[in-house]
Amino acid sequence: MDLDCEIIITGSNATLLSGELATLIAGRYIEIKIYPFSFKEAMQLKEAKNERKFFMEYLKYGGMPLVLQLKPDEKVDYLRDLYNSIILKDIVTRNNIREVDLFDKLIRFLMDNTGQTFSAKSISKYFKNENRQVSRDTIYNYLIYLQRAFLIHKVQREDLVGKKVLKVHEKYYFTDHGFNETLSGKNRKKISQILENIVYMEFLRRGYEIYVGKLNNTEIDFICKNHEKTVYVQVSYLLASEKTIKRELNPLLKIKDNYEKIIITMDDVDFSQKGIIHYNIIDFLKSEDLRQRQNS
Fold first, then answer.
1. What pTM value is reported for the model?
2. What angle, rounded to 10 degrees, do the helices at 51-61 and 72-81 form?
3. b/e for 89-104, b at 16 or more Cβ within 10 A?
4. Max Cα-Cα span within the chain
5. I want to staple 54 with a disulfide (CB 3.0 to 4.6 A). Which of 1, 48, 169, 245 is the partner?
């Protein structure tokens, strides 16, 4: 085995960005990505006994390592300091961003619209409606800076009919949803969006390549692929009515192939039906393999 390579560890607290590191190293390298703690890791670290209570805390504050050690009244202050001193200032300084206020507003816009599809053009139009003239190139560059700093992840759409990846109207998710609570204080009010962010990051940790699915006029939250399988995923807060059940399940039912189809919610009642497997989100986050539920 040839071990003549460098190891790069990257993540939300990396001193240098992965792209910059690659240019500094001659030859080959291995990049090891480190994410904030998953729910399962955080629960094990804290030796939490009440899963539901701890999940609501995780949903609000995220999984940054130091957050788990702080008291509730200290968590938001820490995340705010981390955002201001490490993420915002470092990115601004590194990329010589002059309009810091605009850059900050873009991040807040992304947080308020987690899980929504848009493009640099649509964001530019939004700022125009706010009486701010911002070019698409500027927005595009800002999004690139945020991705390189591991604050956000871009998810492209895949057309299930045309079998191709679309180059417009992507979604963006945050590496740690706790920053959302820091800036807006609304994680529990935007619970559907935050759940979607948590599920996205969980599949990313498990080594999946992730897309948003487009099927004619309907949307699949995630198409998750690895070398072994493909999983279609819908995420919802609660399946509280027949209308909601129909809205969430119908896109999955329209898919004609035989890959796994799952829906993840906070319901305790099992809504599995017609080949679609339902997971309570805590059970999903604790699971080692999606097939555990089907074989149990």
1. 0.90
2. 30
3. eebbeebebeeeeebb
4. 59
5. 48
